[in-house]
Amino acid sequence: MRYTGSCHCGAVKFEFESETIEKGLRCNCSICRRKGAVMSAFVMPPEQLKISADDNALAKYEFGSCIAKHYYCNHCGIYTFHQTFRKPGHYRVNLGCLEELDSTALPFEVFDGASL
Ligand SMILES: [Zn+2]
To answer: How far away, in angstroms, is 71 Cα from ligand 1 center?
Structure first.
C-alpha cells in the first residue's frame, strides 16, 4: 500500500510503501506526551521513506542524547516524522499526516519511552 503524507501547510511532504496500517503507537516520553501524535508502529529505513520539503521548511529538534531526530515543519509547526532512539537513522512517521487513513480511528499501543 502506498501512503502519502504532509504537514498542515504542505511545505513538507513524504511517501512510502508498507503493509496496510492497522494500528499505531503512542509514547509517554517527555516529547511524545507533549506532541500527542499517533505514530507508525513500525520503523522504516531511510530508503523506504521519500521526503520532499520546500527550502528551509524542514526543521529538526534534538535533545538529551541527540540520538533521536525530531522533524517538523518550520512554517506550520507540525511534526511529520522522526528518526528513532531505538533504531538510529530509521524513521517513524506521524500517522495523522497521512491522506489514506484516519489516525484517530486506529487502535494503538503505548510505548514506555519515559522509562528509557
Ligand atoms: Zn507545514
So the answer is: 11
Cβ atoms of residues 40 and 58 within 8 Å:
no
Which residue in the block uniquely carries the three cell numbers 516529547? 31
Query: Distance, CA 67 to ligand 1 centroid (Å)?
Result: 24
Instruction: State in Å: Cα 115 to ligand 1 middle.
Output: 31
Contacts of 41 (CB under 8 A, 6+ apart): 21, 23, 24, 25, 108, 109
Whole-number Å distance, alpha carbon 108 to ligand 1 midpoint, is 25
For every one of its 116 residues, what pLDDT tens digit does the chain have, with 9 covering 90 and above? 999 999 999 999 999 999 999 999 999 999 999 999 999 999 999 999 999 999 999 999 999 989 999 999 999 999 999 999 889 999 999 999 999 999 999 999 999 989 97
Q: Which domains does the chain have, with CATH numbers?
A: 2-115 (2.170.150.70)
